[in-house]
Specification:
By secondary structure, the protein is α+β, with helices and mostly antiparallel strands. Helix content is about 25%, strand content about 35%. It has 5 helices and 23 strands.
Length: about 450
């Protein structure tokens, strides 16, 4: 009986010993050091951009038509034909036009014969008038007939010139050097010239230089200026970027469904002739751009440790540096951020100096400086070994991920992006505002809103 009691006591004793040991091991496991995700200050490029869509078009495009009606007799070019200025493109049937020219020439000869007759008649009457053998009325009548006949001759000459010009219109020549984009007629087809000349061909001057006409929203158009750098892509060549520059910002608005846009023209080289007229382009305009400047991730500006994290870091540093750690007091600083009187401690607050250079010295800026100068002043936390400290910096332009640093940091500085706590308790980001409360969960009464 006693042996059985001893057998049961052994597991009980082991259990009693194991529970504290497991608790201690678990506590040690969850009490690891706090670590940080950091990034180095390094040179880079930052750009502000706007995006839009547009259509690729030839830089110069000409519609070739005809000013006379007739039947297309011959076509000498086709789609994609390369043509030179003055090259013959097509001919219309000239039968009717030649007949009109012949008729005009016959009429001209008739008027000239009549003119010669009335001139001689007027000369005879003038001689008789000098001898008082004819009246003044007869002399005036002869003079009038000469002048009218002369006008008829000039009119007939004009009709001949018009008939010759119409005949020349039946031969279609290229007005520019370029490439035939479209052909709108076939041989044997009748074209009728009225108020608007019918288009026979469309010719692009030079496909080695193209224009992209993009529709930019009215909210962005104020940032677009001439000669700004542009990159764009087309669906035909995914992953390939084409480069150009803003050539023109047109003042005429386009309103579609109450949306106002403005046309921006971008010039681009097309030496490989990959860009074709009518392609849809997605453009990116670099409205502001700096290169080879110091940059940091924009996440660094959002990192803000709270008092709990600084207190934990203070204890962590003190435990590992008992002999080196000078005596110091910790007190929550401004906005709950810890502060201390020396930068060689775990953390240091922002030094309050009275600089003589308009609110800045050694990369640190006064909070009571000119508000206009404080516009681009931000704060980041810098890690130096086991130490962290806040630093005020002056920033420039930024994009979605990167910020330009003008003053306050140097290349190689290590800025903090986020904190990793093994206790899985959220540290390092101060509460930015009121949080939502679940009305179905029991609420804790009293206190300062923080769990003890």
């Amino acid at each position: 009986m006693k042996g059985k009691k001893k057998i049961w006591l052994i597991p009980l004793v082991l259990l009693i010993i194991a529970v504290p040991v497991l608790f201690i091991l678990k506590k040690d496991k969850n009490s690891g050091p706090v670590t940080f995700d950091t990034a180095l200050v390094k040179p880079g490029s930052v750009a502000n951009t706007i995006s839009a869509t547009g259509t690729v078009e030839p830089l110069d495009k000409v519609d070739v038509g005809t000013q006379v009606s007739g039947v297309v007799e011959k076509i000498y070019v086709d789609y994609n034909s390369t043509v030179k200025k003055g090259q013959l493109l097509a001919e219309l049937d000239k039968t009717t036009l030649k007949a009109s020219l012949q008729s005009a020439m016959v009429n001209l000869n008739s008027t000239k014969i009549e003119y010669d007759f009335v001139v001689k008649k007027q000369q005879r009457i003038a001689l008789l008038f000098q001898k008082n053998m004819v009246s003044q009325e007869e002399f005036d009548q002869a003079t009038y007939e000469v002048q009218r006949s002369k006008a008829n001759v000039e009119k007939a000459e004009t009709e001949v010139q018009r008939a010759k010009l119409n005949l020349s219109y039946a031969t279609i020549y290229s007005p520019i050097d370029g490439t035939v984009l479209s052909r709108s007629v076939d041989e044997g087809q009748t074209v009728a010239a009225s108020l608007n000349a019918p288009t026979l061909f469309t010719i692009a001057r030079d496909l080695a230089r193209m224009a992209v006409n993009a529709a930019v929203d009215e909210a962005d158009i104020g940032q677009v200026k001439q000669n700004q750098r542009v990159i764009f892509t087309v669906d035909a060549f995914p992953g390939e970027e084409f480069h150009g520059k803003v050539s023109q910002v047109r003042l005429e608005p386009t309103v579609t469904s109450n949306v106002v846009t403005y046309t921006v023209t971008i010039l681009a080289e097309n030496n490989e002739l990959k860009l074709l007229p009518g392609m849809t382009a997605t453009i990116t305009v670099f409205v502001k751009e700096v290169q080879n400047v110091l940059t940091i991730p924009s996440r660094a500006l959002r990192f803000q440790p709270d008092a709990d994290l600084l207190q934990k870091l203070h204890g962590q540093f003190s435990k590992g540096n008992k002999e080196k750690m000078p005596r110091q007091s910790f007190a929550p600083g401004e906005n709950g951020v810890g502060s201390a009187d020396s930068s060689n401690k775990v953390f240091s607050g922002e030094r309050r100096r009275e600089p003589q250079d308009g609110g800045k010295r050694d990369g640190r800026f006064r909070e009571n400086a000119d508000p206009a100068q404080q516009k681009d002043i931000k704060r980041v936390w810098v890690k130096n070994g086991d130490l962290i400290r806040p630093v005020r910096i002056k920033t420039g332009i930024s994009d979605a991920t990167t910020v330009e640093v003008i003053e306050g940091l140097k290349e190689g500085d290590e800025v903090i992006l986020s904190v990793n706590d093994p206790n899985k308790k959220t540290f390092g980001q101060k509460n930015q505002g009121p949080t939502s409360v679940n009305p179905f969960m029991p609420q804790r009464s009293g206190g300062r809103g923080r769990m003890r």
